Amino acid sequence: MNIVVLVKQVPDTETERKLDPADSTVDRAASDGVINELDEYAIEEALRLKEKHGGEVTILTVGPEQATDSIRKALSMGADKAVHVCDDALAGSDALQTAYAIAQTLGTLEYDLVILGSESTDARTGVVGAALAEYLGLPQLTLANKVDVDGTSVKIQRQTDDGYQVVEATLPAVISVVEKINEPRYPSFKLIMAAKKKPVTKLSIAEAGIDADKVGLANATTQVVDFAPAPPRTAGTVVKDEGNGGVLIADFLASKKFV
Amino acid sequence: MDFSKDTVHEDIRQAVRDLCAKFPDEYWMKHDQSQEFPWEFYNAIVEAGWLGLTVPTEYGGGGLGVTEAAIVEQEIAASGAGMNGCSAVHIGIFGFEPIIKYGSEDLKQRFLPRLVSGDLHVSFAVTEPDAGTDTTNLSTFARKVDGGWLVSGKKVWITKAQEAERLILLARTTPRDQVAKKTDGLTLFFAPMDRERVTVRPIPKMGRNAVDTNELFIDDLFVPDEDVIGEVGKGFKTILAGLNAERVISANAAIGIGRAALRRATNYAKERVVFGRPIGKNQGIAFPLAEALIKLDAADLMCQQAAWLIDNGYPAGRQANAAKFLAAEAGFFAADAALSVHGGYGYSKEYHIERYFREARLMRIAPISQEMVLNYVAEHVLGLPRSY
C-alpha cells in the first residue's frame, strides 16, 4: 500500500509568529520553520500502516526552499521518499490553491491513501483535506483518531465532541487525523543517517502540472484584508472570599461554560 | 575554515533535544533526590539508537566520531538533565574506545552489538584510593592463573557499578619495581562483574545523585584470558586511547549545564519584576548573563576544534585539555551567575539552579582537575619543567 503524507512547514508555535505587513502573508524569517504538529501524527500513522501492510510512504510538501528541513525530518522519522513542490509562483497561495496544487502533484504519483493533519497551526483553515478530496473526486475521512485498512477499504473512527463515528470508504481516500490518533516517534539516530540518502524529488509548478494562473497571491480566492495582534490580557476579576468563595468560583466557571 | 551548517549535526541536535524534552527538570530533580537511576530516560536513549554512536557500523553502531558524541552529550546536559543524564548514558555513547581501538575481534563480536542494544552496562574501573591521576601507582593486582587472571584490590569513584555487568578494569600484572618504565606492566581487562567477588559500596556525594558512584573491593575476581583488552602489560597505552576524546565530550556536558542554567536565568530575568520592572533591565543582572554566553560559546568553539582534530587523526592534547578547562570554567560561571540572578530562589531546589550549580562544580574536578590540565599544558605545550 502506497501512502502519501502531506507535510506543511509552519512557523514554530514556541516562537513569536508574525505576519508580514506588506502583503499579509506569513513572515517566514521571523521564526524557525517546523513540521506542522498534526502532520507528525499523520506521518506516524502512515508509518504504522506501512509496518502493518507494507508499501511505501511518500512525503509531499508544497513550500519554499527552507521546507527541506521539515522534509528531512519526516524522512528521519522513517518515510521512504519525498516530493517537494517548490516554486516562487506558489508564494501567497491560499488554502484552495494549495489543495489544487497538491491535487495536481498527486496526479503524478501512485497512491492508495493520502493522510494529512486536520489543520495547520499557522492558518488553521482546516479545509485543505476537504478541498483536495473534492479536486481528486475521492472520499474524505476527516478527524480520524483511529485508522484500519482492510483490503480495498478503509475504516476510521471520526472524533466528535462526545464520542466518535465510524466512517468507511473505499481506497484511494483522503484521511485527516487528530492528535489522539497516536504518539509520533522521534527520529532515531540510524534513520537520521539514512535520511541523507533517501530520494527527494523537487518539482517546479510546470513539472507538477500546476497552472501558474491558478496559484499565487495575485490569483488567490481569499484575501487577508486586515490583521491585528490579540489585545493584551485584562486584569481579570478578583473575588473576595467571604465564606462563599467556592460558590463564586463555581458560578464563574459555569458562566464560562467550563462546568 | 568552514562553519556552514551541517544538516546531519543539526538533525542530531534537534532529535536529541526533542527526546530530552520529554524528561523535564522535575524528572531530574526527583531522581537526583531519590537517587534512582533514570531508567525511563536511559531506555528512551536506547530506543532512539543513540548508544553505540561511535561503534563501527559493522558491529551495529553509528560509525561516527567525537564531534557527534559531543553534540549528543551537550544537548542532554542542556535540556536540564545535566550530569545525571549524561552519566547515565556516557559509557554507552563513548566509553568503549579501548575495545574499539585495541580489543580482539572476539571481544568486539561478543560485546559491541550488545552495547548498541543497550542491555550491556559497564563501569570504568581505573582510579584507586592511592592512584587517581597518578595512574601508574595503582595497586590492584592481577595474578596469572590457568586460563586467566585473578584480580584483587580496591577501586574508587566507579560510576554505575550498581548496574554494571562488566568492568573496564586496569590492574598491575607486573609489579612496578620490576618494570623498566612505570607505565609498563599494567593490563586492561573487560572483567565480568562477579558480585560474589566484588563488593560495591556507594559513595554519598554532593550532586549527580541519580547515577551511583562507588568504591569497589575486589577479592580474587577471575577474568579469562580472552577478556584482556589489548596486550598484556600495555594497559596504560590502551587506556590512553580515549582520554582526549573523553575530555572533549565531558567538556560538552559542562557547556550543556551552563546553557541550561543560562536559559533559566535569562527567562527569570525577563519575568521577575522588582521595583516595577523586570530585573533583566539592570546591567548588574544582564552583564553576567551576556558574559556567560560569550564564555560558553568560546569554549564550544575550542571543543569543536579539538573534536575535529581527534576525528581526523591529529594529535589533540593541547586542544582537548584547553577545551576541558574552558568549558568547565564557562559552565561554572554560568551556573554561578544564574544563581545570583535568582537570588534566594536560586538556592532553593524548586528552580533547579542549585542542582546545575552542584554539577557544574563537578566538572572542574572531573574527569580530570583543572590543575592537572594546567600541568599538562605547562609541561607538554610550553615545555616547562615538570613540577611533580
From TrEMBL, chain A:
Its cofactor is AMP; FAD. It comes from the Bacteria. Keywords: Electron transport, Transport. One of its GO terms (molecular function) is electron transfer activity. GO terms for cellular component: cytosol. Residues 23-212 form the Electron transfer flavoprotein alpha/beta-subunit N-terminal domain. Belongs to the ETF beta-subunit/FixA family. The electron transfer flavoprotein serves as a specific electron acceptor for other dehydrogenases. It transfers the electrons to the main respiratory chain via ETF-ubiquinone oxidoreductase (ETF dehydrogenase). Heterodimer of an alpha and a beta subunit. This is Electron transfer flavoprotein subunit beta. It comes from Thermobifida fusca TM51.
From TrEMBL, chain B:
Its cofactor is FAD. Keywords: FAD, Flavoprotein, Oxidoreductase. The keyword Flavoprotein applies. Residues 233-381 form the Acyl-CoA dehydrogenase/oxidase C-terminal domain. The keyword Iron-sulfur does not apply. It holds the Pfam family Acyl-CoA_dh_M. Residues 9-119 form the Acyl-CoA dehydrogenase/oxidase N-terminal domain. GO terms for molecular function: acyl-CoA dehydrogenase activity; flavin adenine dinucleotide binding. It comes from the Bacteria. InterPro entries: Acyl-CoA_Oxase/DH_mid-dom, Acyl-CoA_Oxase/DH_mid-dom_sf, AcylCo_DH-like_C, AcylCo_DH/oxidase_C, AcylCoA_DH/ox_N, AcylCoA_DH/ox_N_sf, AcylCoA_DH/oxidase_NM_dom_sf. Residues 123-220 form the Acyl-CoA oxidase/dehydrogenase middle domain. Belongs to the acyl-CoA dehydrogenase family. This is Acyl-CoA dehydrogenase domain-containing protein. The lineage of its organism: Bacteria, Bacillati, Actinomycetota, Actinomycetes, Streptosporangiales.
